[in-house]
Write the C-alpha cells for this entry.
Amino acid sequence: SLGLLLYVAAEAARGRRGVVLVPMAVAVAGWAWGGLDPLGLGLAAAASVIALVTFRRPAGVSGAWLGLLLILLGAATALQAAAPTAALVAAWPLALGSALAALSGLWAWRPWPVRILITLGAALGLAWVGGVVHGIYLGLDQPELLAATAVLAAGLIWPLAQPEKSTAGAPFIPVAVLLAGVAVLGFVRFDPPWSPRHPQAARIVYQQDLATGQAWRLSAAPDPGAWARAVLTADGGAVTRRAAPLVFDRPIDAARARPIAAAAPGLTLSRRNGGEVTLTAAPPPGAISLILEIASGQPLTAVTINGQPAAILARPGQPTRIRWRPATGGLTLGFRAEAPGGLDIRYAAVIPSWPPDARPLPPRPAEVMAFGISDSTLVTGTARLTWADATTEEAP
C-alpha cells in the first residue's frame, strides 16, 4: 500500500498515466487466481477512468494534497450521516491533515521547522491510522476495507511523498518499496508462522447426533493443520465440508467417526389450566452450554424464560434460538397457546471433555493449542413435543 502510494505520487508529479494499469492488473490477477469478481472489475474500471482524468497533466503538491483532503471531507461527511460512530475513521485524519496543510500553506511555505513539524504530525497520524486498521483487520471479516489505509495515509503524508516537478525522475524508491512489500508478503505466506510462543489454534469437537445415530469429528479452525487433520481421520473417515448448525455459523471440516454413548437433554412439556404450557429443558450431565432452536406451528403469547418476559415465538414457523450458559439448572420456557399444537426443537449441548469411549486425542504438539470449545463433546438431536386441549391439566 505504501509503495503504491509513493508510485502514484511520483506519477502525479510527472503527469504520467502508467498508474492506470495498476487497478486493472490487480483485478485481472484476482480474476485469474480467485475467480470472476464483477464488483472488483467494476471498481478497477472506475479507478482507471479516474486515473486517466487525474493524470492527464503534471500535478502540483498543493493541488493534489487539497484534492485528497476534499476526498476525506466527503468520506467523513457521508459516514457522519450514515454511520456516525464510524465517522472518526476519516474525520480525525482529515482534521490532522487540514491542520498540517494550514501550517504549511498547502506546502507553499515550508522552512525546515515546518518540515519537521509536518513530518512529526504525519508520523503521529500514521500511528493512529495503524491502530484503527489493526482493529479493522482483527474485528471485521472484510479485508477489502484495508484499502482505506492508503487514502487515510495519503491525506497525511502526500507532501512528503510527491517529488517536485523539476526533480521528478524514474520512481526507483516507490518500485523498491513495492518489491519489498511483495517480498515480505511472500515470506509471511510461506514461512511457518506457528511456534510454542505463538501456537496454532485448534477447534476439534466430537459430535454425536442422536437424531441420525451418526458421529462426526469436527474441526472449526480455518486451517486445521497436520495435528487436527490426523484427529479428523483417526476413525478412517474422509474429510469433507459439512454444516454444523446451532454451534458454528458456517460449514466446517468433518469426518465420520464411531458412534458413542451420549445422553440427550431432558425436554418435558407440561400444561396447566387456563392454557399455560411450560417447556422444561435440563442439560445432559456435565454440559456447560445448551442451545435450543424452537419453532411453533401457531403463535404463542405471554412467553417467558425462567419467569422473565421474552418477545419470541410470536410468528408461526419462525424458529427462535436460545443459548443457555451456564447450563446448570436448565431453563423453563412458559407460554400460552389457544389451540392444540406442538414445538419442533433442535438442540445442541456442549460437554467440555473428550468422550471417554472414543479414540483418545493424540499428544498435542507444543505449537498447537486448544481454542474455544476444542476437545469437547457435542450432543445434537431433535425433538417434537405436543400438547392437547389447552384447557385440560396434564402431568409433565
Q: What stands out?
A: Residues 389-396 have pLDDT under 50 and may be disordered. The chain has nine helices and 15 strands.
